[in-house]
Amino acid sequence: MEGPVVHITNAAEFKQKVINADKKKLVVVDFFATWCGPCKQIAPFYNQLSLKYRHVIFTKVDVDQAKDVAQGCSISAMPTFQFYRAGAKVSEMRGANPSKLEATVKQYQGEATETPYSVPGHSDLGDFIDKTQLHALNQATEHDVMSILKNDNSYLESEADEQLIIVVPFTCAVKLHSIKFTAPKDKGPRTVKTFINFKTLDFDEAEDTKEVEVLELTEKDFEPSNVTKLTFVRYQFVTSIVLFVESNLGDEETTVINQINFIGTPIETTNIKDFNQGQENQQK
């Protein structure tokens, strides 16, 4: 997995994703070649930077694939890293120097998006949720699970009773540190059981399966600056998490959740499809 790194293949994409990018954001461009040894050496570090500095846009340009872009940017050695803000180049460095690369990112990064809560060393994993596989059981038709990903007035609500099962798959393995629940204090979840690495789970299975952890929430968990901490050692390799909401704080007929944020760290892994393709190319 290459994390949030954006691959640019032609001049039109370079204009769109670098020159015309959000003016408030720093854009880093890694000009590399597949045959370049130093490029290969620094690539994993570059990917890690893209996961660490989520408010910075990281891109890659294969100089042999996008010769027009490389020529337009006067690239004569690989790797070369260029740094852009508001469409203008603010810095450039050549060579595979990890410490200098990160120092330059820090110098020009600007301010990260502020949230009322923060967990040092971890970030919001919203970009890594597989929205196509996200689902819930016992959800109201007009207030479904997609609402938990939105920062607006929408909300997820249970239907027949107070219980909910929420299945959240990730696009890569992650380490989970904590969960931020946003919910009304009377109808917000109280007892929540967690299960990891299940693609689906129904209510009978949730009753019969041993949970990873039982979270007992209070009104304080719903305050803007607070998060619900998980027993971190139990969540070191998570491809999906299932939340079984057993009850709510006010013993109301239905449970309401406005938003759920998962805080942690993506685990950089090899993209199996790319790996197999590389193996096939070597065998030809």
Quick structural overview:
With 284 residues, the chain is α+β, with helices and mostly antiparallel strands.
Write structural notes for this entry.
The chain has 284 residues and is α+β, with helices and mostly antiparallel strands. The protein has two domains: 6-114, Glutaredoxin; 123-266, Sandwich (Jelly Rolls), CATH 2.60.120.470. It is 21% helix and 30% strand. The chain contains six helices and 15 strands. It has helices at 11-19, 37-52, 67-72, 98-108, 203-208, 272-283; strands at residues 6-8, 26-32, 57-62, 80-85, 88-94, 123-124, 135-137, 156-157, 164-182, 191-196, 213-216, 228-229, 238-245, 256-257, 259-266. Strands 6, 7, 9, 10, 11, 12, 13 and 15 form an eight-stranded antiparallel β-sheet that branches. It has a five-stranded mixed β-sheet with strand order 1-3-2-4-5, with helices on both faces. A two-stranded antiparallel sheet has the order 8-14. β2, α2 (37-52) and β3 form a beta-alpha-beta unit. The longest helix has 16 residues, at 37-52. The relative contact order is 0.15. The model is unreliable at 269-284 (pLDDT under 50).
N-C termini distance: 24 Å
CATH fold topology of the largest domain: Jelly Rolls
User: How much helix, percentage-wise, in residues?
Assistant: 10-25%
Total number of domains: 2
Number of DSSP strand runs: 15
Mean pLDDT: 89
Order of helices and strands, N to C?
Answer: EHEHEHEEHEEEEEHEEEEEH
**Global outline:** elongated
CATH superfamily of the largest domain: PITH domain
Beta-strand content estimate: 25-35%
Classify the secondary structure makeup into a structural class.
alpha+beta
Oligomeric status = single chain
Cα-atom radius of gyration: 22 Å
Q: Which class of the largest domain in CATH terms?
A: Mainly Beta
Instruction: Report the total helices.
Output: 6
InterPro entries: Galactose-bd-like_sf, PITH_dom, PITH_dom_sf, Thioredoxin-like_sf, Thioredoxin_CS, Thioredoxin_domain
Keywords: Disulfide bond
Domain PITH: 114-282
Domain Thioredoxin: 1-110
